[in-house]
Design a protein that fits this description.
alpha+beta; two-stranded antiparallel sheet; 6 helices; 10 strands; elongated
Length: about 220
């Protein structure tokens, strides 16, 4: 025989299965949610402006339905792509332009980051260094392990006006470049075929030229 009980939330008299007699306290899922979480706050949808209530008191959704949520996400992605990323980039650039920013950064990182081989500008283990071969205008092939270090150590191979070092704009203090290092870096990246007679050489030809490989394949053990 069904048992009757009174809902502790709305006061409605309801029936329950005999197995739930004495245990059931609410008449519906809505009343059970109110009993457990309390009254949910009224919120305004950011898309359509409709007032709605959250399912739980702890939740703070911004949209009232899945359709509005989809429109909100589309708008959010457009904002991030068009304006928000640019604002973040401009704020970061403005922070780098402030007086004393480079000095504070150097003091904070001194003895930790800049003491490692991966961050030394002329180190072969620099995180942006790459191993490649280049042929000079006089048909001499060189092994390059760090382009900046190669230009700095062989400045006599380049015209004097191309080895005038200058600090890179917009980067942290200590990043230097010249026309020769810039041109060779573009060669290495494949952005151009030649630069003032210099050409990038393949690994096989370069290793044979600098005697890293035997001249004949028959000599390979």
């Amino acid at each position: 025989m069904p048992a009757t009980f009174e809902c502790v939330v709305c006061g409605a008299v309801c029936e329950s299965a005999p197995s739930q007699a004495g245990r059931r306290k609410t008449c519906s899922y809505q009343c059970a949610s109110k009993l457990r979480w309390g009254d949910a706050p009224s919120l305004e949808c950011c898309v359509c402006g409709k007032l709605f209530k959250a399912k739980r008191r702890s939740e703070r959704p911004k949209t009232c339905s899945r359709n509005c949520l989809s429109e909100h996400m589309k708008t959010r992605k457009k904002e991030l792509k068009q304006g928000w990323s640019n604002k973040a980039r401009e704020s970061a650039r403005a922070a780098r332009r402030k007086a004393g920013y480079s000095e504070k950064l150097s003091v904070a990182l001194r003895g930790m980051v800049h003491s490692t081989p991966k961050t030394r500008r002329l180190s072969p283990q620099h995180h942006r260094a790459s191993v490649w071969f280049v042929k000079s205008p006089s048909n001499v092939i060189y092994l390059v392990m760090n382009t900046t270090a190669f230009v700095a150590a062989n400045a006599h191979l380049f015209p004097p006006k191309t080895v005038k070092w200058r600090e890179k704009p917009g980067l942290k203090k200590g990043s230097w470049s010249c026309a020769a290092s810039h041109g060779l870096n573009r060669l290495n990246r494949g952005e151009r075929g030649t630069w003032r007679g210099w050409m990038k050489v393949g690994n096989l030809e370069g290793k044979e030229a600098v005697e890293l490989l035997p001249r004949s394949f028959s000599e390979v053990a």
